[in-house]
Amino acid sequence: MRQTLSSSFVIPLFLCIFFFFVSISTSHGLTATNDSLIRKTCKKCAQSDPNLSYNFCITSLQAAPHSHCANDLRQLGKISITLLGRNVTNTRSHIKELLKNQKKMDPFVRSCLHDCFDLYSDAIPTTKQALQDYKAKHYDDANIDVSSVMDATTTCEDGFKEKEGLVSPLTKRNNDAFMLSAISLSIINMIRLNGDSI
Ligand SMILES: *[C@@H]1O[C@H](CO)[C@@H](O)[C@H](O)[C@H]1NC(C)=O
Ligand SMILES: *[C@@H]1O[C@H](CO)[C@@H](O)[C@H](O)[C@H]1NC(C)=O
Ligand SMILES: *[C@@H]1O[C@H](CO)[C@@H](O)[C@H](O)[C@H]1NC(C)=O
C-alpha cells in the first residue's frame, strides 16, 4: 500500500518534470527556427539591396504579429506585405491629422501634404492588391504593386525638397514605408527566383 502510494506520486512527478523540460526545449527549438528564418531572410534582403538595413529588417519582422509562426519564406512574405499595408494606413491617418490640426501652415507645405495624402490613399488599395497577387503567386504583379507603393513614398518625400529650406514632416514615415517596401520586394523576388527555399 505504501509503495503504491509513493510510486503513484513519484511517477507523475517524474513525468511532469520530464514534460517540463521537453516543452522548454521544444519551444526554444521552434523560436530558434523561426527567428533563424527571419535572420536568414533579412541577411539576404540586405545583401540584395544596399539601401536596406539589416537591423531595420530584423526589428520590423520580429515585431510583426505572427512572424514567429512563419515556417517558410512564403509566409514571411505575406507578413511583410501586411506590415507594409498597416504602415501605409497609419501614415495616411497621420497626414489627415496634420492637415486637420495645423491651421496655420505654409501653403506650400499644405499642398505637399495634400499630395502625400493622395499618394498614401492610393497606396492602401495597392498593398491589398499586392497581397492578393502574392497569394495567387502572381509575383510579377505583386512586384509592380509594391514598387508603386515604394515610388509613392519617394514622390511624397521629394515634394518637400522642391522648396529650399523646407523640412519634410514625413521623412521618418516615408523612410519606414520605403524600407518595408524594399523588404517585401526582396522577398517577392527571392521566391520568384528560388521558390520557398532560403
Ligand atoms: C538606393 O538608394 C538610392 C538613393 O535613394 C537610389 O538612387 C538607388 O537606386 C537605391 N538602390 C537600390 C538598389 O535600390
Ligand atoms: C512603420 O513600420 C516601422 C517598422 O516596422 C515602425 O517602426 C513604424 O513605427 C511604423 N510606422 C507606422 C506609422 O505604423
Ligand atoms: C515556428 O515554426 C515552426 C515550423 O518551423 C512552426 O511549427 C511553429 O508553429 C512556428 N511557431 C512557433 C511559435 O514556434
Beta strand count: 0
Secondary structure: helix percent: over 70%
Low-confidence stretches: 18-33
Strand content: under 5%
How would you characterize the largest beta sheet?
Answer: none
| Rg from alpha-carbon coordinates | 23 Å
CATH C-level class is Mainly Alpha
Q: Total helix count? A: 6
Keywords: Disulfide bond, Signal
Pfam families: PMEI
GO molecular function: enzyme inhibitor activity
Family: Belongs to the PMEI family.
Q: Which key features would you list for this structure?
A:
single chain; 198 residues; mainly alpha; Butyryl-CoA Dehydrogenase, subunit A, domain 3; 6 helices; elongated; binds 2-acetamido-2-deoxy-beta-D-glucopyranose
Walk me through this protein's architecture.
82% of the residues lie in helices and 0% in strands. The chain has a single domain, classed as Butyryl-CoA Dehydrogenase, subunit A, domain 3. By secondary structure, the protein is mainly alpha-helical. The protein contains six helices and no strands. α1 packs across α2, α3 runs antiparallel to α4 and α5 runs antiparallel to α6. The site of one 2-acetamido-2-deoxy-beta-D-glucopyranose has 7 residues, from α3 and α6.
Secondary structure: elements and pairs:
Elements lengths: L1 H47 L5 H10 L9 H29 L5 H29 L3 H23 L9 H24 L4
Helix pairs in contact: 1-2, 1-6, 3-4, 3-6, 4-5, 5-6
